[in-house]
């Protein structure tokens, strides 16, 4: 059965563009459009859509106010349509806090060749939203149907940025590093984890799939809610306990050894698994340079980025954790890691932070004493 979609946007041009792109997929049926939240409210009652795309900035009522009311009165999957500005980033991150599944940026009609890639991303996110868990979790979830439409030659592995290595390094430091990867639903999952970590926790490096304009506001938002010091990572920056380093959007974050210390290294290498930053790239660098002194954690997200890297971390002696299906917005990335055999523990989100601290304190050689 086709996914019933309602498009809510005050711009006639954007409504037309989104409609034309989404009509390309036979699994999506556009049942209606609305110019503002008041019209959207009536259309939702009449048409009972499975998913809505929602503009952030609209007349009469802004998208955030409407989303807040919607999630309280009739929770449903929402994909936000946001502008790539500081204000757009702040509002979109707020929308994800309120329960929106994901977001896309406004389509760029003046950039040659950009609309085909945009359409592919939009279709994928609408499909994932249709099978994702809304924040209220009032209905039984359906299995996520993840779209993987790139051809094999278009889809790079971590080898494109960092070659695999089978050599075992002798570690001259006992410093711990926690590596976290996430995608769809990850901004809120990461917030929940960071809120639970003490100020003196081991250093944390994070790769979250996010646009370049959003990563700094995201880091600032996390810094306000965490006892640790959270920042957007910069190239060459030392990695210190009590600090969290979030990969900049559109750059890979790698962990590099510098004697007995660690540094952040940023790379503009090709996207891996369609993403830059890529979780696989970060996890591989941690496996090679931190080994059993690390803990690997993969949280909610569509696709399979990070699954192979998490297994490489496990094979390097690091304990590995995947978020469970029941608490994931989309069990794509953690599910792929479990299927590949790279996750030693599968835990609900509320237990992840405590387990990370336990593993860094009690299992210095990456050996798990419990399941």
UniProtKB/TrEMBL annotation:
Keyword field contains rRNA processing: no
Record-listed 4-aspartylphosphate modification sites: 55
EC number annotated for this UniProt entry: 3.1.1.61, 3.5.1.44
Catalytic activity line of the entry: L-glutaminyl-[protein] + H2O = L-glutamyl-[protein] + NH4(+); [protein]-L-glutamate 5-O-methyl ester + H2O = L-glutamyl-[protein] + methanol + H(+)
Active site: 183, 209, 305
Main location: cytoplasm
Enzyme class, spelled out: hydrolase
Gene3D superfamilies found in the cross-reference section: 3.40.50.2300, Methylesterase CheB, C-terminal domain
Job of this protein: Involved in chemotaxis. Part of a chemotaxis signal transduction system that modulates chemotaxis in response to various stimuli. Catalyzes the demethylation of specific methylglutamate residues introduced into the chemoreceptors (methyl-accepting chemotaxis proteins or MCP) by CheR. Also mediates the irreversible deamidation of specific glutamine residues to glutamic acid.
Name of this protein: Protein-glutamate methylesterase/protein-glutamine glutaminase
Organism: Steroidobacter gossypii
Encoding gene per record: cheB
């Amino acid at each position: 059965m086709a996914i019933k979609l309602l498009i809510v946007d005050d711009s006639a041009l954007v409504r037309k563009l989104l409609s034309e792109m989404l009509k390309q997929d036979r699994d999506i049926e556009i049942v209606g459009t609305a110019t503002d939240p008041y019209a959207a409210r009536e259309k939702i009652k009449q048409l009972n859509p499975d998913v809505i795309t929602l503009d952030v900035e609209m007349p009469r009522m802004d998208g955030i106010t409407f989303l807040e009311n919607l999630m309280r009165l009739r929770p449903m999957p929402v994909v936000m349509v946001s502008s790539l500005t500081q204000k757009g980033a702040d509002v979109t991150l707020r929308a994800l806090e309120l329960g929106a599944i994901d977001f896309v940026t406004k389509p760029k009609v003046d950039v040659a060749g950009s609309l085909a890639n945009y359409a592919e991303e939009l279709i994928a996110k609408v499909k994932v939203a249709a099978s994702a868990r809304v924040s209220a979790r009032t209905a039984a979830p359906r299995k996520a149907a993840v779209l993987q439409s790139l051809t094999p030659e278009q889809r790079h592995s971590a080898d494109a940025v960092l070659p695999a290595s089978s050599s075992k390094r002798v570690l001259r430091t006992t410093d711990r590093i926690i590596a976290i990867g996430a995608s769809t639903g990850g901004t809120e999952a990461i917030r929940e984890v960071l809120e639970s970590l003490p100020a003196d926790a081991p250093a944390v490096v994070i790769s979250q799939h996010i646009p370049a304009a959003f990563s700094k506001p995201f880091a600032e938002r996390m810094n306000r809610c965490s006892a640790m010091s959270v920042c957007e990572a910069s190239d060459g920056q030392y990695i210190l306990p009590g600090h969290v380093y979030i990969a900049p959007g559109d750059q890979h974050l790698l962990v590099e050894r510098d004697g007995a210390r660690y540094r952040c290294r940023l790379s503009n290498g090709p996207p891996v698994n369609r993403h830059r930053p890529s979780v696989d790239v970060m996890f591989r660098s941690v496996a090679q340079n931190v080994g059993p002194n690390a803990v690997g954690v993969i949280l909610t997200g569509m696709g399979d980025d990070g699954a192979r890297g998490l297994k490489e971390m496990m094979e390097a002696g690091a304990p590995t954790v995947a978020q469970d299906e029941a608490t994931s917005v989309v069990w794509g990335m953690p599910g792929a890691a479990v299927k590949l055999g790279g996750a030693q523990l599968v835990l609900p989100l509320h237990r992840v932070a405590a387990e990370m601290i336990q593993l860094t304190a009690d299992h210095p050689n990456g050996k798990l004493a419990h399941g």
